[in-house]
Amino acid sequence: MNSRKRATIYDIAKELNISPSYVSKALSSHESVSESMRQRVREKAEQLNYKHNSRAANLRRGQSRTIGVVVPHINQSFFSDAISGIEEVCFANNHSLVICQSHESYEKEGKAIETLIHQNVDCILISNAEETASTDHLRQIAKNKIPVIQFDRCLDAFDSFKVINDNKAVSYEAVRSLIREGYRNIAFLGGPDLVKIFRERKEGFIAAIAEANLSIPYNFIIDNVLSRERANQAALPLLRLPNRPDAIFTVSDLQSLGVMDAAAALGITIPSQLGVFGFADETFSQLVTPSLSTIDQHSAELGRKAAELYFQRIYQQDEMPKTETVVIASEIRIRQSSRRQ
Amino acid sequence: MNSRKRATIYDIAKELNISPSYVSKALSSHESVSESMRQRVREKAEQLNYKHNSRAANLRRGQSRTIGVVVPHINQSFFSDAISGIEEVCFANNHSLVICQSHESYEKEGKAIETLIHQNVDCILISNAEETASTDHLRQIAKNKIPVIQFDRCLDAFDSFKVINDNKAVSYEAVRSLIREGYRNIAFLGGPDLVKIFRERKEGFIAAIAEANLSIPYNFIIDNVLSRERANQAALPLLRLPNRPDAIFTVSDLQSLGVMDAAAALGITIPSQLGVFGFADETFSQLVTPSLSTIDQHSAELGRKAAELYFQRIYQQDEMPKTETVVIASEIRIRQSSRRQ
DNA sequence: TTGTATGCGTTATCAC
DNA sequence: GTGATAACGCATACAA
Question: What are the residues with a C-beta under 7 Å from any atom of nucleic chain D?
Answer without folding.
Answer: A 17-22, 25, 32-34, 37, 56, 59-60, 62; B 5-6, 8-10, 20-21, 24-25, 27-28, 50-53, 56-57, 59-61
